[in-house]
Amino acid sequence: MNRRTFIKNSSLATASLYATPLLYGSDMNELILGHNKKRYRINTKWSQADFARNPVKDCHEMVQDKSGRILLLTNETKNNVIIYDKSGRLITTWGNEYPGAHGLTLFHENGTDTLFICDNNRHQVIKTTIDGRVLMTLDYPKETGVYTKADEYIPTETAIAANGDIYVADGYGKDFIIQYDYKGNYIRHFGGRGNEEKHLLNAHGICVDYRDKNNPCLVVTSRQQHAFKRYTLNGTYINTIPLPGAWVCRPVIKGDYLYAAVLQTDARQGDKSGFVTILDKNFKVISNLGGNEPAYTGNKPNELYQTIKVFQYPHDVCIDDEENIYVAQWNSGQVYPYKLQPL
Amino acid sequence: MKRLAFLFLLVITQCSFAQQLFQLAPPLLNYRSVFFQDKTTLEIKFEQPGAEVRYTINGNEPTAKDRLYTKPIVIAGKRTSIKAKAMGTDFLPSETVSVEFIKTGKAIQQINFTAPNPKYTTNNKNILNDQMGGNTNFSSGAWLGYDSDTVEIDIVLKKKETINAVLLDLLQNESSWIFLPEQILLYYYDEAQKSYLPLGKETFLGEGPSPKQCSAHEIIPKRKVKTNKLKLVLSPLKKIPAWHPGKDNHAWIFIDEIQVY
């Protein structure tokens, strides 16, 4: 082969190398994530924020306020709270004093939006107005008699009942759920570690479930046990929802469904193996976004695992008034949230 | 040059229309243990519409032309390396996952070993000859973990036999500071001299990073001896090499099974 033919051949080879996946791309079927009635298109470029001006570290949690805006909580103290419109345009930011910003819960208090932030580093829960003015700070719960210093208490999540009662999940501390009245007066604590079904291990998330109006309950994450555990609003254990293999984060209820980010799976720990799971009102897994097709053996789901590398370590989901899902991720290369639109 | 410019434009145009291509996650390999007596089965799980699993049993990288996984694979060979990959037209193929199945050897009476680090020890005296192993999770309870300078393992066979090979199943997980040992020495007990005499040796260089994997090593004796007592002396790396973030620290070794052939 002379030099000229060699160059010609190699440039053709290079061209086909570049062209093939892309031409192939145009023939591709569009990626649809999920199963059954819960299927979505994904937009990984939803956020229009400029990283140079509004950086994020871990994107921990998201909520939607009553005016439809999407709030993101990050442990980046340049802007702990980033507020977007639904199209991904950044509206405003606030907060520099939450280095351990982890949990974000919104509560409609007599028609006004209030926020509850759990800060891992400060060992505190902070209640603020929607624009960040501090209304109340809850320190470590000495009243329980089970904590001797603030360091033992690392709250990860709050849930607020309709009557204003505050439930704090000490998910990185001693795994107790601490219940307060709306003013922050201690009522009781339950959960904690142990060998009984009522105990928790890595109580990472909590929510109040009003889907069954006559029997409201608390749904609590026991992440290292790969399960949700249900309790009455007074803290009496009801039952366990096993999710084999799934490091499930906080439960988020919208309409009839329960949504949750799965940080990673047992099958591939430490290997960006997360996805999003959706359970129906009977707590049955019906869809996994980026995960395996749900299947049951008896009453227990088969092992859950990632099948498409869409997410790395998803940490929370937010479902807006149009049923879109926003996904915030931990330790995933400082990516902004993704948006998923239902089919 | 014109042609190149055209191709460049083609690439740009295609880019703007092309959809985001996602990679499939690797399939799940389900097995009880990689060690087995007569035969065993491997179940591969990957429930994703639009994707399939292709695999090889000869150590080659799986391609779209290799065997399509449809039902559990029956394994009976002495050492069988299986590699599997998920693929589908609308996705980038997954990374390859692999596992090596190993047939058990001569009957072992007992294996005594240096006390491991208390964090990675066991009450199971037969942990190195229980035919359970080959799972890369170092905290599964199947592994013995050492961060000492020397590890001694004494093997007693049920009867005197000719030794063809001694196999050790070790873990490589460098992000957790688990390396292969620097050296493995094999000795046999000589009745006449009433002492242990050298029978084989293997050294490892650890020059660059390797993937997280179970790593089975066979030490082949230089000569044929008949014995029922063998001794292994393993030397963990005393200094993690310079390319690793933990350089100069003491490395760990993890071992979960021994077979004698």
Question: What features would you describe in this structure?
Answer:
The complex is a heterodimer of chains A (343) and B (261). By secondary structure, chain A is mostly beta strands. Chain A is 7% helix and 41% strand. Chain A has 1 helix and 28 strands. In chain A, strand 8 and strand 9 form a beta hairpin. Chain A is globular. The termini of chain A are far apart. Residues 1-25 of chain A have low confidence and may be disordered. By secondary structure, chain B is mainly beta. Chain B has 2 domains: 21-103, Immunoglobulin-like (Sandwich); 108-260, Jelly Rolls. Chain B contains 1 helix and 17 strands. Chain B has a 5-stranded mixed sheet with strand order 2-8-7-4-5, with no helix packed on it. A 5-stranded antiparallel sheet of chain B has the order 9-11-16-13-14, with no helix packed on it. In chain B, strands 10-17-12-15 form a 4-stranded antiparallel sheet, with no helix packed on it. The longest helix of chain B has 16 residues, at 2-17. Mean pLDDT of chain B is 92; it is low at 9-18. The A-B interface holds A 11, 15, 18-19, 21-23, 25-26, 28-31, 42, 44, 267-270, 273, 292-293, 295, 303, 305-310 and B 3-4, 7, 10-11, 14-15, 17-26, 28, 45-51, 86, 89-91, 137, 175.
